[in-house]
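User: Can you help me understand a structure? I only have the sequence.
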Amino acid sequence: MSTGVSCRVAAEADDLEACFRVRKEVFVVEQQVPEDLEYDAYDAGAVHVLAVREDGLPLGTGRLLSGAAAAAKNGGDPDVGALGRLAVTRAARGLGVGAALVRAIEDAARARGLTAIDLHAQTHALGFYERLGYVVYGPEFPDAGIPHRAMRKPLDQGAVSPPGSPGA
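Assistant: Let's start by predicting it. Here is the structure, written out as tokens:
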């Protein structure tokens, strides 16, 4: 990642607002996801992570769901977190911000005792997540009119395998 960029859990109201602004810029404006689909009931209980430039400019965000919220998205396993709403501003793409956000979310998942992370990746981003150790499982499906695939990454050796894979 470029120097001068850091990731932190969005603990303050200003950080959370910055996360939502980045998501609006990327998903609602760029990708034309309806705003009522972008923000959901899961936001209230999620861990939101914010990437900022040295001067405080928000560059990206992502969220982690755990417990019942994650189980609702991953097939029912409470030990598997759900990474979602990963968004990097257009100006910050290609600088390693997305990978840094994923690592920060994985760290937050480990701190909560989760054994793996599931995510629903837009199909154009599969290679990005594969390079970070995520494995595709299940068929392609639409989400907000955009093709997606489910992916999973164990957080420790011997952790949970993707559903339907050998050893699952």
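Now, to help you interpret it: The first helix runs from residue 13 to 30. Residues 157-161 have pLDDT under 50 and may be disordered. Let me know which part you'd like to focus on.
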